[in-house]
Write a structure and sequence with these properties.
The chain is mostly helical. It has one domain. Helices cover 73% and strands 0% of the residues. The chain contains twelve helices and no strands. The termini are far apart. The relative contact order is 0.15.
């Protein structure tokens, strides 16, 4: 696929090809904080904290990498095969099957960890991967929300609830990530706000219920 063809299919690529300083910053933020990054980091931090000083929590937390890696692998494979125009899945129609595959993979990893005897306090945060994936996949049937904003908001909420309330100081990062998605033309403000709300409410609800 040529650059011009990709630009025609993807509003993100079209913006990047004529990028100014703000657009380049937005692009770097979108890449640096792609959806698997913050959830994996937050999951590892919570797992390690829950079992400190034993390293077992970090070991269990690293299983989240498998969930994130599977989703990324599916997306990258689809882009290389020409199924989707870009790794950010900016178009609603491109999201359904990658989300389903990532959700099923995350559920499989969670069940494996449970079978292997992972502590309950670690299984609860890990459940956010398949639950969140299923929720976003369901939302995609009716509209489009920001995966970047939802993942960031959910990750920071997890840190606030399970690690330290002072982690709430990280919430401005969600706004910055949301701005980057709007700046690149991948989402509207309504869509990033919807993603933020879903990530926050879903994570807080699951964590406070278990």
């Amino acid at each position: 696929m040529t650059t011009s063809e990709a630009s025609a299919r993807s509003p993100v690529m079209a913006t990047i090809t004529t990028a100014g300083p703000a657009d380049r910053l937005a692009r770097h933020l979108a890449i640096l904080f792609c959806p698997p990054v913050l959830p994996v980091a937050a999951g590892c931090a919570v797992s390690w904290h829950a079992t400190w000083p034993s390293p077992a929590g970090l070991v269990w937390g690293l299983t989240a990498v498998a969930c994130g890696a599977l989703g990324v692998a599916v997306i990258v494979f689809g882009v290389r095969r020409g199924w989707w125009p870009d790794v950010h899945l900016s178009r609603r129609d491109d999201r359904r099957w990658p989300l389903v595959c990532a959700t099923l993979g995350a559920a499989g990893v969670w069940l494996l960890c449970r079978h292997l005897g992972a502590p309950r306090e670690l299984l609860a945060p890990a459940a956010m991967a398949p639950v969140g994936g299923a929720a976003v996949a369901l939302c995609t049937c009716f509209g489009k929300i920001s995966l970047h904003a939802g993942a960031a908001a959910g990750s920071i909420t997890l840190l606030v609830v399970r690690l330290n309330p002072w982690c709430a100081l990280l919430y401005p990062l969600v706004a910055l990530i949301a701005w980057s998605r709007v700046r690149l033309g991948a989402h509207t403000w309504l869509q990033v706000c919807a993603g933020t709300a879903l990530g926050t409410v879903l994570t807080a609800g699951v964590m406070l219920a278990v």
